[in-house]
Amino acid sequence: MKSGIWQVCFYNMVRRNLGQSTRSIYLGLACLSLSLHVLLAFFCLSVLQTACVFPSSSSSIPGTDTQHHESVSQSPASDAASSNKLQRRPHDEVRHKLTANMLHHKVRGSLNEVTEKSKKLIGVGKIIQKVDGPSKLEALFKHPLYNLPQPELQQDDWLLRLKTEEDAKDTESQEEEKEDIFPDDSEWQSNSHEEGYDKVTWTTDVETHPPWLRFHLGISRWELYNRKDPNLAQLTHYLATQRILGAVQKKGGTQLKLLISFPNYGQALLKPMKQSRHAETDVNLFYFSDFERHNAEIAAFHLDRLLGFNRIPPVVGRLINVTTEIKEITTDRRLSKTFFTSPAGNVCFYGQCEYYCSVEHPVCGQPHMLEVSLATMLPDLTIAPRRSWRSPWRRSYSRTKLAQWEKDPAYCDTVKQTPPYNQGTRLVDLIDMAVLDFLMSNMDRHHYETFEQFGNNTFLLHLDNGRAFGRHSQDEPSILAPLQQCCRIRRSILLRLRLLSLPDFRLSDIMRESLTQDPLSRVAPLLSEPHLSALDRRLAKVLQVVQACQEKHDDVIYNDIEGHDQGP
Ligand SMILES: Nc1ncnc2c1ncn2[C@@H]1O[C@H](COP(=O)(O)OP(=O)(O)OP(=O)(O)O)[C@@H](O)[C@H]1O
Ligand SMILES: [Mn+2]
Asked: Where are the alpha helices (DSSP H) in 172-259?
């Protein structure tokens, strides 16, 4: 391999001959520098066989990251990763960085050999120390577009709030209020005394609240969570590590999903891995027959956060034991009846639901371990009722029929006159959602939900993203219909999209980095490289649609950040 590089250099030098002596000298020096880097790589990998920090050079090889600790509070799953005494960056990412940084030296073949060799030396899947370097994710979140001043929140801008002493006195006599989970007095004892659950010792002091409760208490009119809230890291760590106490099928929806309970009353929505990460959806399957993907739920949470929306409940990946963490503990007879051992000796189940709940579509451990996604549950509907809205751009969910919006190019004119789209931000909120869906190719956004309490003046929940990231080789322009037909977009998201299209930030790089924070990225990258590059390709398409709109109309931009002239 080493001699291969020398051969390339030598060949180049001879070819350019004496008449180009200056160029040859430069080229020679470049080759020399490259070879030294490769030698250094070898030295580090074979002698030290451990963390390997590459020195910075004039190229983009990362320098030292002095802000590592800062990323913890901004990065939901980083805590989870470190808690398992594993480093944040799997070696695949190191490999990628090497690749990206050295490709411009045009020695791709030789480099692959280096990386293959380093793969063997390090051991696939084994985590090595984080290669220090500038983090594009940290840089993105430091950008003014991700730190826009927020309106001060008033009391009625919080979904839930703790009772004040006065509230408590007012309602003391009311029996039902005694069952409220947010009392003011010193300690609250669980009424249920259910087996296995922790004794509850929460007080009005936030420090005593479990992460899921802090998450609930942090939901506001404008977003589900504040990206900078240190509780996010605790919440994802909690989901990734808490003992599973209960697992039952969750009703509602069409495909199998489980409701998971934890000892301190936290809950999560589990979606199992059904197909390999790299499998593309069969081209002959309609969108409504597509499987749900656990990694799509995880990736959607990261993408939504990177776009600055914060409208998806935190989702984390986890490897669970289907035997000890579902089969042996479930109280759901309908579920437990469906467990079996496959001919390969794997423990499988299929549950009961409308689609793909049959022995022909089993969910199987290997032989027990299964990858799943766990989404934080929103507050119970009895505490925080939600309203479900049919999307005006809902697909027909039929093999033959077209929806109205597919037939009528002036469809948006009607929508714009129809409440709630005729005032406030509802239309641009819907367009935000269409951008998210187009980027991840989610054709399944038939409904969306809002919190009842906030009326129409609130954000849209981006729930149910299991059918995203099904195909990377194809884009689905119809998902962008709301943007393309209405020619309207929030200025803040447009500027962020432009930022994410710049090489310094590049959406695919930021997604790759963000996804390494998820515990499951240690098993394999959560999105394959073709899916990551599809994000860049689709982002360019969104910007083209906006450009085309601006050429025809002057009211394309909805200026939600008046006076903030930040932007790329
Ligand atoms: N994190 C969450 N917390 C609370 N409720 C949720 C959460 N995620 C989803 N739900 C609720 O559960 C319902 C079903 O979930 P989801 O939509 O993911 O399942 P699905 O099988 O894909 O549904 P569908 O077939 O309708 O697309 C949703 O409509 C939503 O109301
Ligand atoms: Mn769905």
From this structure: 211-217, 231-241
